[in-house]
Structures are given as structure tokens and as C-alpha cells.
């Protein structure tokens, strides 16, 4: 069974695909090699998220909901004024690692469907 390909629609997935396409256009790599790279990307990102899930990592997300949509069994959210904290990084709230973003787009796909 092959890994799901929906991570190709993330910023990093689109950037990788764009870079590979440029390399194909310049004749630096073949389409076959680019496809293998994308398959490796699919498998690698799926494995990494499974590891994060298995080790019990948790994060809290606080934000304002800007927009949302549900289509084809997929939720799409746009969040604004986002604050993400890694809960597992420290029990002391003053030492938790955090990230602040102006906007964050979230796509939630039922894993049983992919």
C-alpha cells in the first residue's frame, strides 16, 4: 500500500514539487526520478507524523477562526493570530517552546479515507 499523497498540497510539498519540476525542465533529472522523490517524500512525512503520534507529543493551539469550509470529507480552516505551544517540552509553562503566526491554514482529512 502506498503512502497518502495529500501532504503534497502543503507548502513544503508544493515547494518540493516546484523544485523538481524546474530540475526536469532544465534536464537535470528525469520525470522518473522526480516521481521517486515525491514517493519518498510521501512515505517519509507519513512515517514522521506517525512517530510524533506514537511518542505522545501534544501541542496546544490558540487562535481566532478566520474561515472554515467542509468539502469532500475534508475540513479547511484558516486561523489568525495563532499561538502554538509544545505541551510535552516542559511541565513549567514559562519554559514551553512556542510559535506565533499571523495566519495558519489547516486541512483535516479523515485518515481512513486516504
Provide the structure class. Answer: alpha+beta
Number of helices: 2
Beta-strand percentage? 25-35%
The helicity comes to 25-40%
**How would you describe the oligomerization state of the chains in this entry?**
single chain
The overall pLDDT average reads 84
Low-confidence stretches: none
Shape: globular
Describe, in short, the structure shown.
This protein has 114 residues and is of the alpha+beta class.
List keywords for this structure.
114 residues; alpha+beta; three-stranded antiparallel beta sheet; 2 helices
Break the fold down into its secondary structure elements and pairings.
Elements: H1 11-25, H2 31-54, E1 59-71, E2 74-86, E3 98-109
Antiparallel strand pairs: 1-2, 2-3
Helix pairs in contact: 1-2
Could you characterize what this model shows?
It contains 2 helices and 3 strands, in the order H-H-E-E-E. The chain starts with 10 loop residues before the first helix and ends in a 5-residue tail after the last strand. The mean pLDDT is about 85. It is an alpha+beta fold and about 110 residues long. Helix 1 (about 10-25) packs antiparallel against helix 2. Helices cover about 35% and strands about 35% of the residues. The longest helix has 24 residues, at about 30-55. It has a 3-stranded antiparallel β-sheet with strand order 1-2-3, with no helix packed on it. The protein has helices at about 10-25, 30-55, and strands at about 60-70, 75-85, 100-110.
